[in-house]
């Protein structure tokens, strides 16, 4: 599949609206939308409100304007999760700021008792930052206004429709840079040039990335020069300048972090999720 041309590759554009910004503090998905493309044509469109089983934060309501009344009677995520997995089977997922949506997806699937998704994810935010380095903003709205899409409204399907148009325009510019296949774009989004060899990192990092598993590591940083042991869930390797980073969810910080790859001492694979601190528990 990685050799498929971008214009015909199977893709699922998706977006979530959420009750807040932090799934580890109990925030939930309250709307989902997806649009599936096969052979360059749309073959599925789906959207639904989701009962998040908790109130929206004031900040989230100001953004998406989804009211409690609208959510009354909506299905819970667990009720649609199996169907979503079937619709996503095979294609590559595409989202803007995909790390945000992917972490909510991981959290919701875990709550539903389902395994994590294992399909590749393309982040149009990361692609745009590399493709258009001189632009002052790489938000979906800014890209939509300059690439011919209707501006998104912060409702899930409107954002998905804008994302599809933005992605289509970006693929034309990517072709000029020599990126024409799905595999080439996955590497380009991570900062690697076409044809560059796979990064030389600890084998267990590749295993964790390929199997969606966690790692127990030891790491030191400028903030904590004394090495600390922590559990991380690797998401992707990417290069910034001459430095190779591992993007991962860190259960020590309970946040996404970028680790300098050659400073990581990998101890072991693990499937034990560390407990969430009491003061971050869901209320």
UniProtKB/TrEMBL annotation:
Residues 10-176 form the Exonuclease domain. GO terms for biological process: DNA replication proofreading. Keywords: Exonuclease, Hydrolase, Nuclease. SUPFAM superfamilies: Ribonuclease H-like. It comes from the Bacteria. InterPro entries: Ribonucl_H, RNaseH-like_sf, RNaseH_sf, WYL_dom. GO terms for cellular component: cytosol. The keyword Membrane does not apply. It holds the Pfam family RNase_T. GO terms for molecular function: 3'-5' exonuclease activity; nucleic acid binding. PANTHER family: DNA POLYMERASE III SUBUNIT EPSILON. This is Exonuclease domain-containing protein.
């Amino acid at each position: 599949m990685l050799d498929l041309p971008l214009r015909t590759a199977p893709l699922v554009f998706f977006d979530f609206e959420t009750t807040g910004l932090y799934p580890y503090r109990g925030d939930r998905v309250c709307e989902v939308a997806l649009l599936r493309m096969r052979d360059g044509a749309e073959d599925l469109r789906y959207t639904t409100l989701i009962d998040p089983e908790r109130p929206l934060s004031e900040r989230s309501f100001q953004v998406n304007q989804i009211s409690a009344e609208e959510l009354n009677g909506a299905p819970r995520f667990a009720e649609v999760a199996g169907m979503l997995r079937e619709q996503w089977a095979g294609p590559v997922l595409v989202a803007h700021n995909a790390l945000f949506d992917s972490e909510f997806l991981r959290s919701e699937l875990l709550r539903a008792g389902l395994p994590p998704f294992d399909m590749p994810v393309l982040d149009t935010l990361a692609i745009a930052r590399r493709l258009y380095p001189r632009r002052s903003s790489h938000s979906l709205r800014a890209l939509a206004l300059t690439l011919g899409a209707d501006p998104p409204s912060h409702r899930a399907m409107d954002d998905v429709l804008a994302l599809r148009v933005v992605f289509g325009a970006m693929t034309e510019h990517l072709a000029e840079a020599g990126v024409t296949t799905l595999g080439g774009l996955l590497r380009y989004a991570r900062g690697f040039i076409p044809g560059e060899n796979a990064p030389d990192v600890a084998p267990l990092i590749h295993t964790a990335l390929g199997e969606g598993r966690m790692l127990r590591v030891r790491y030191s940083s400028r903030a904590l020069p004394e090495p600390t042991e922590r559990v991380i869930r690797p998401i992707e390797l990417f290069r910034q300048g001459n430095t190779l980073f591992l993007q991962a969810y860190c259960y020590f910080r309970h946040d996404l972090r970028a680790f300098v790859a050659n400073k990581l001492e990998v101890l072991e694979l693990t499937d034990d999720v560390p407990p969430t601190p009491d003061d971050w528990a869901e209320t």
